[in-house]
Specification:
The complex is a heterotrimer. By secondary structure, chain B is mainly alpha-helical. In chain B, 57% of the residues lie in helices and 0% in strands. Chain B has 2 helices and no strands. Chain B is rod-shaped and about 75 Å long. In chain C, helix 1 runs antiparallel to helix 2. The chains are: A mainly alpha, B mainly alpha, C mainly alpha. Chains A and B meet through helix 11, helix 12 and helix 13 of A and helix 1 and helix 2 of B. Bound molecules: protoporphyrin IX containing FE and copper (II) ion (CU). Chain C: Keywords: Membrane, Transmembrane, Transmembrane helix.
Chain lengths: 582, 60, 63
């Protein structure tokens, strides 16, 4: 890229495409945050604008809009930017690039329609199955079709990036893959390996069943396939945030990335280890033996390694920046960091929340302690520190730097943007602290009315009333912060006739790829090892699940999620349960 | 105040190459982080094992 | 008015104060010290006020 030119100058068409992805993402964020606010106020019985029966429609929308649509639309934008910028070439065929964007948008719209139609009785479509869509909860087929189309869109996006890389390789034989592209390709490998699971679950079992082509399915099997995908998907949200931390944060801090080889090692570890761990979400599932759960736990603990490596590399890169800016001492260098830059501060705060939220992940991952927190409000606490902050706040902060590069406009309201990221930080701490503590005393997640007659939670400090107030205040701060972010983005998009402050260049790493063995770039090798690990971790559990329950299950009919027919639901459920027991 | 003035200036004041860079601050921060983690583990241990009464034994 | 630190750093410090406050209350309850809401708010207001005072107090006659 010519020096001093923004991305928008150098690649106008690509910039337009990435902007389109970002707008889809931001729209989802706005809608999802609104539902989040409703939940926070409803659960705590502070303000109930919906009937409690409608809560599951809201919660499904919150989950799907935020963790599927907001995150993934944003990350495909980031990845497209990273590949184009680091290979210094546009996609081979822009029509293909628009094609996968179109598929993703179509899929997201279908699924969104299926969920939102649940708010009205005039359309006979609903999908109140939450973002995990566990069978035998059943949604309208459109919900699943939309998800599949969306995922296929992401697969084609990956193919597009591999294609760009191959074209680049043809022109640059023998060169090391530029780090940003390397990160994108490895992340997509992980995504291919893992999303196969959810594709099989939907296409082979859930979709035919919802279309009444098959009369039954095996819920343990579809759940296991879901979680086969469900853990790696958290890295699909997180690795783009890592990409921004490795590529952008050192520069924003005024320094350079500490080590390029270490970054490659981290991404390879994620390819290898993210998938053979999914059973750690099923510690409480009957029908999976303890031994398999134990193996999943062990693998999970290994996964801490790449995150700890990341903590080291990122902090060292920031310290490098601080020292170049004249920072001194053991801790005093922290004051030499550019705290007035919202992009920097947002990412730094997100990293901090991630480091401590990561601890709560270790708690979830421990088989015995998991029993303490399983399905309690603790889990949404964890979710909001990780994807809801480590990823979401990093994305927002990243947007403060990226959107000016993609529009050629200067960011509007730099000071307000700083307030916005700090608000998110404060809001998340308020809300999640309450969620964690509520979870520890057993307050359940995923319920509109966690209040029970004749039963009191024993809160360690304070009362449930205080916890509720804290959750609601935190949720409201988060909502305000999200709206502020969206407003600044819209204003920036219309801020024509200006220029970004930054020139968009990325300095090279202190220790470059030439210091590392070339085998790191041997993607085929890593795919092969990852595949072997997956087979080892999953073939026995899957075989045992199928041999016990059958591929299509012990006659499990759908539980229609139509709330008005509550008695039907109860009856169907009873029948289903008795069928299993028999 | 020189410190603030430096803040306003995005350009680095000096260049530090790989070999002259000794990340002691990183070490200090990570040591601090591990100390907090140990405390958190202790906390969890007490909540899990000492804070809860055993599951009541229901005798039929 | 001259600040001892930049407004941005002050903002981040205030946010950190709030965080420490919320978490500290939980941690203290664990060792048997339970602060009431009123007390927590009072400590918070005092801490933040002290921080702001430190920031705006003229940094001596030097510099
Ligand atoms: C505007 C800020 C937000 C508020 C007020 C909010 C509030 C909530 C609340 C209260 C719950 C618990 C619902 C329950 O279990 O009954 C929840 C669940 C959840 N939130 Fe958020 N949230 C916000 C932002 C986010 C973001 C940014 C993400 C992810 C990017 C996210 C992802 C989730 C997920 C995955 C769940 C679990 C859904 C489920 O159980 O199916 N939230 N949220
Ligand atoms: Cu997981």
């Amino acid at each position: 890229m010519p020096n001093g030119a923004t991305f928008a100058d150098a690649y106008p068409t690509q910039a337009r495409h990435i902007r389109a992805a970002f707008w889809a993402s931001f729209l989802s964020l706005g809608v999802g945050a609104f539902f989040g606010l409703i939940q926070a106020l409803h659960r705590t019985d502070i303000l109930r604008v919906i009937e409690s029966q409608t809560y599951y429609t809201v919660l499904t929308a919150h989950g799907v809009f935020l963790v599927i649509s907001f995150t993934i639309f944003f990350l495909v934008g980031v990845f497209q930017w990273a590949v184009t910028d680091s290979l210094e070439r546009p996609p081979v065929d822009m029509r293909f690039t628009w094609g996968w964007y179109g598929l993703m948008s179509l899929g997201a719209s279908l699924t969104a329609f299926a969920i939102l139609a649940g708010f009205t009785d005039s359309i006979d479509v609903r999908a109140n199955v939450l973002f995990t869509f566990y069978a035998p909860l059943q949604a309208h087929p459109l919900f699943y079709v939309g998800l599949v189309v969306f995922v296929v869109g992401t697969w084609l996006a990956g193919a597009d990036w591999f294609r760009s890389w191959l074209a680049w390789k043809g022109d640059n034989p023998g060169e090391r893959i530029p780090l940003p592209t390397f990160m994108v390709l490895t992340t997509m490998i992980m995504w291919y390996i893992s999303s196969i699971g959810v594709a099989v679950a939907i296409l082979a079992f859930i979709l035919p069943w919802s279309l009444e082509l098959t009369g039954s399915l095996n819920p343990t099997l579809t759940r296991t396939l879901f979680w086969y995908f469900g853990h790696p998907v958290v890295y699909f949200w997180l690795l783009p945030a890592y990409l921004l931390w490795y590529i952008l944060l050192p520069k924003l801090a005024g320094g350079r990335l500490f080590s390029d080889p270490l970054a490659r090692v981290v991404f390879i570890l994620f390819v290898l280890l993210s998938t053979p761990v999914g059973i750690h979400h099923q510690y409480l599932d009957p029908g999976i033996s303890e031994g398999f759960k134990f193996i999943a736990m062990t693998n999970t603990m290994f996964l801490l390694l790449p995150s700890l490596l990341t903590a080291f590399t990122i902090i060292a890169s920031m310290e490098h920046g601080a020292r170049q800016r004249g920072g001194e001492g053991y801790f005093n260098w922290l004051t030499a960091l550019p705290w007035r830059d919202p992009a920097f501060t947002g990412m730094a705060l997100a990293g901090m929340v991630f480091a401590f939220g990561g601890f709560t992940g270790i708690v979830n991952a421990g088989m015995n302690i998991n029993y303490l927190v399983h399905n309690t409000l603790w889990v949404p606490g964890h979710i909001h520190t990780q994807v809801g902050t480590a990823a979401a706040l990093t994305f927002m902060a990243g947007a403060y730097w990226l959107v000016p590069q993609l529009t050629g406009n200067r960011l509007v309201g730099r000071g307000l943007a700083l307030v916005q990221v700090v608000l998110w930080f404060v809001g998340i701490v308020f809300m999640t602290n309450s969620m964690y503590r509520g979870g520890l005393v057993g307050i359940p997640r995923r319920t509109a009315e966690p209040q029970y007659e004749g039963f009191e939670y024993e809160v360690a400090a304070g009362s449930v009333g205080e916890l509720n107030a804290q959750l609601a205040i935190g949720g409201t701060i988060l909502f305000v912060s999200a709206m502020l972010f969206l407003a600044l983005m819209v204003l920036t998009a219309f801020n024509g006739g200006t220029e970004p402050i930054d020139d968009g260049s990325i300095p090279p790493a202190l220790s470059g790829p030439e210091d590392s063995p070339a085998v790191l770039d041997n993607l085929k090798l890593w795919v092969a090892i990852a595949a072997v690990l997956v087979v080892i971790a999953y073939s026995f559990p899957l075989a045992s699940i199928v041999s016990r329950g059958g591929l299509f299950g012990p006659d499990i009919g759908p539980i229609p999620v139509a709330i008005d027919a509550a008695s039907t639901v109860a009856r169907t459920a009873l029948e289903a349960v008795s069928a299993v027991v028999r | 105040m020189s410190n603030v003035a430096r803040q306003e200036d995005p350009a680095s004041v000096e260049r530090i190459e790989h070999d002259e860079f000794d990340p002691v601050g990183t070490l200090a921060l990570i040591a601090f982080y591990f100390a907090v983690l140990v405390l958190l583990w202790l906390f969890t241990y007490f909540v899990e094992f000492l804070g809860n009464v055993p599951t009541p034994v229901v005798v039929a | 008015m001259r600040l001892r630190t930049s407004p941005a750093k002050l903002l981040v410090l205030v946010a950190l104060c709030l965080v420490v406050l919320v978490e500290l209350r939980t941690a203290l309850a664990f060792v048997g010290v339970s602060l009431s809401i009123g007390a927590t708010v009072a400590v918070g207001v005092a801490a933040i006020a002290a921080l702001l005072l430190w920031a705006v107090r003229p940094a001596g006659s030097g510099e």
